[in-house]
Design goal:
423 residues; alpha+beta; Purple Acid Phosphatase, chain A, domain 2; 2 domains; seven-stranded mixed sheet; 6 helices
Length: 423
Amino acid sequence: MTKNLSLLLIIVLVSACAGDQINQSSSAGRDIEYDYAHIGLTPGPTAKDINISWLSKTARNSVSLVRIYGENEELLMTIEGTVSSAFSGNKTHKVSVLGLMPNTRYSYSVSSDSLNWSTKYSFRTARTDRFRFAAVGDPQLGSGTMASNSNWFSSDRTSAQAWKNTMTRIASANVDFVVGMTGEINEYQKFFAPSELRNIPFAPAIGNYDRQNLVLHHHNLPNEQGIERTGNYWYVYNNALFVILNSSAYPSSIEAARLYIDGFDRTLSAAIQENRGNYTWLFVKHHKSSTVLARHAMPSGLLFYVEAGFEEIMDRYNVDFVISSNFHIYNRSFAIRGGRIVNNSRERIRNPRGTIYLTLNTSGGLQYDNSPSPENLSPYTFINIQTRKPEFTIIEVENRTVQFRTYSIDSTIPIDMFIVEKS
């Protein structure tokens, strides 16, 4: 056992849920021979850690083991995690690997029975001086066919293939991880189909069409905040703190929305208290954007979040960036605080003293929303773009500078680019 690796047992929510059957004839995201499905990575508690998860269906599968190999393919460690009942006869396997070396390539394989091992996959840990990650909006993997008014189509005109193309573009940017929506409408065969998800950690935010129990069975979330706040979690990556919130529900009143806002408050408070003084940047990722539409144009399920205090919580905890999706359009706000614009810089923003809200377009192209009319657009908006193409955003964090570049899938020229600095 190397001193840089240790065992963390992750206690997971055990819940039976119908749907999302494993297709035994498909090889998407699985090792057919030994029945390993949807093998995927999630960021661990810090940049030195990695979380691994997969599903299995065979009766003999009663353990969760991961072998970690070094850059010369030498076996470094065999680590045991947890196995729990999931849904439709499946088991969910979760293992956490802690204390990895920075800027190092590792390989791994998994076993559900301690006898048979999956194919080897690999990942690389981040550098300590800077890191790069991608943010994506809804992959939209439901009914399949891309929007008929799209300005770009995948080879078979499906959102599943477009999602694969998006992940290929993201991988070419050498990102350390991805933050975004999950398998929307629970199409996890399609979600895990890109081979890049065996090599690049994906930090999910539960979307409005996701079944949250399925998200928990398919992903190994770090610092998950318990049953009361299911799907809220956080992790630290070098000098940045990431807090993921579950805003998938549609509250029916301000009072109902306050229950969710209270949960967000507790999650942010716990993350900040544990990491106070150890981060420069604070990112929040959730599903429902609050800054695309003016209040009079918001659907009630979103307006109740705002009126219950969502943006006030972002102010209270000095959140730098809020990344969301839901509207299937690209929208960037000015820096706002206390309900007003506090910095109207556009391309280079120094000491914004407020929160910048970024709403991302779809990464799969099943549906695009129309651009709001001027009277319905939020007064906080700096830029609002509808390309009708799958998009992704590359974000680079280096010390006291964060750079954002958002791309359409068919171009290397950003549709939007900006830099934020703190002195």
